[in-house]
Amino acid sequence: MGLFDKRKKNMEPEEEPAKEIQQSDAPVQEPEEEKSNEPGFFKRLVSGLTKTRKQLSESLNQIFHGHSELDDEFYDELEEVLIMADLGLETTDRILSDLKRRVKEYKIKEVDPCRELLSNIIRDQMMVEDSAYDFEEQKTVMLIIGVNGVGKTTSIGKLAAQYKKRGKKVLIAAGDTFRAAAIDQLKTWAERAGVEIIAQQEGSDPAAVVYDAVQAAKARNVDILLCDTAGRLHNKKNLMDELAKMRRIIEKEYPEAHCETLIVLDGSTGQNALEQARQFSEVTDLNGIILTKLDGTAKGGIATAIQAELDVPVKYIGVGETIEDLQRFDPTHYVEALFADFEVRSEVEMLIEEEKETWQ
Ligand SMILES: Nc1nc2c(ncn2[C@@H]2O[C@H](COP(=O)(O)OP(=O)(O)OP(=O)(O)O)[C@@H](O)[C@H]2O)c(=O)[nH]1
Ligand SMILES: [Mg+2]
User: Fold this and answer.
1) Is 149 in the pocket of ligand 1 (CB under 6 A)?
2) In sequence order, which ranges of the chain are alpha helices (DSSP H)?
3) Which of 143, 153, 266, 295 has most ligand 1 atoms within 8 Å of CB, for mutation?
4) For residue 116, how far is its CA from the centre of ligand 2 (angstroms)?
5) What would the pLDDT profile of 157-201 be if each residue is shown by its tens digit?
């Protein structure tokens, strides 16, 4: 039984509309079943999303406690709260239209059942296809792109460590040759993760580094090659040309490998992150998004906006600084962690306890 189903069972009277929702709306997936393959996974997510959850829950509680009727005022206030959580105008509009449609369909007259509807709608906006992570099981070259400071290098370090732990043969390419410090930072991560790295001098051609790394990956039977890239060059055109050149080399030199281009976005920059993703998607095909720094921000709703507006899946999220804090994105868990309001917080803690017991 999912968190929201539990809450409903405990808290809501047996009203007709509530029953109808349970029957016709897809139930929230069981978090207990696939909560993680790592201990503390859900706890990290809940803790990482604290700021966003607090802001969202407080505002939502106020709205839900302050209204008994589904009138315009209720919807207007809801709109304001969703926009404040950085879901963006377009996504908020889409969510509210969907909510109104479902309210009509299920003949709902009261505000309370809307809470679950709302979380279901947001979850549905972000569903990731089952095939989204197939690349992890193939020979893959991952090109990690994004503007400076968003978390490319650290995400590569964290992913390398996680893949290695799962038995993959991993290689890293230091494709950010713009600064010597960038190469050193990546070397430190490679050491920490216990994987090999291909690097050249500062100022060398990044495409040449990628070329060498691809040859090494083929020769050493590497499963996953992770390529770092520069976030800042002399101008935007340079940067985009360089990324295109790297991708051409990968495709030409290693056509049998899958090329996975992931853009890293800093979640704490809210709508700016969305704009960056838009700009990059105009010049290169994006397979997915790594959304970092959700732990430091109340703008966690941006994950929903990005996915809904760009139609590019968020594949990993960063909810802290440790290696385990970079997680595969699971919309069900994300929504449960995000929407756990005061009334159900004890149940969130219960889930964490259950998780602890499973892994101890
Ligand atoms: N709190 C938090 N910090 C993060 C997360 N991901 C990255 N960071 C921090 O963000 C800072 C920048 O990360 P980098 O990996 O160096 O970013 P980059 O995109 O490689 O930056 P450039 O190489 O300058 O383009 C570092 O201090 C990281 O520790 C996250 O999920 N949460
Ligand atoms: Mg970097």
Assistant:
1) yes
2) 3-11, 16-24, 41-48, 50-66, 72-84, 89-105, 112-125, 152-165, 180-193, 206-219, 236-253, 271-283, 302-310, 331-339, 345-359
3) 153
4) 40
5) 999 999 999 999 999 999 999 888 999 999 999 999 999 999 999
CB 224 within 8 A of CB 136: yes
Whether ligand 1 lies within 6 angstroms of the CB of 293 is answered as yes
Q: How is the beta sheet containing 196-198 ordered, strand by strand?
A: 196-198, 170-173, 224-227, 140-145, 258-266, 288-292, 314-318, 326-328
In this prediction the pTM is: 0.83
Token pair, residue 7, equals 């809450």
Amino acid at 115: R
Is the CA virtual torsion 263, 82, 324, 258 positive or negative?
A: negative
Q: Residue 29 gets which letter from DSSP? A: P
Ligand closest to CA 150: 1
* C-beta of 151 in contact with ligand 1 (< 6 A): yes
Residues with Cβ within 5 Å of ion ligand 2?
152-153, 182
Please give the pLDDT value at position 348: 53
User: Residue 291: nearest ligand to its CA?
Assistant: 1
Q: Which residue reads 């969305």 in tokens?
A: 274
User: Ligand 1: which atom is nearest the Cα of residue 292?
Assistant: 31
Contacts of 177 (CB under 8 A, 6+ apart): 183, 200, 201, 202, 203, 204, 205, 206, 209, 230
Please choose, from the candidates 255, 303, 310, the residue with its C-alpha nearest in 3D space to the C-alpha of residue 277. 310
- Token pair 């979850």 is found at 123
What is the structure's pLDDT at 33? 39
Q: Which two tokens stand for residue 359?
A: 């892994």
pLDDT in tens, 250-270: 999 999 999 999 999 999 998
The Cα 243–Cα 247 span in angstroms is 6
Nearest-atom number in ligand 1 for the CA of 317 is: 31
Nearest ligand, CA of residue 292? 1
Q: Which is the closest atom of ligand 1 to the Cα of 320? A: 32
Does the beta carbon of 296 lie inside 6 Å of ligand 1?
Answer: yes
Of all ligands present, the nearest one to the C-alpha of 316 is 1
Report helix, strand or coil for 154: helix
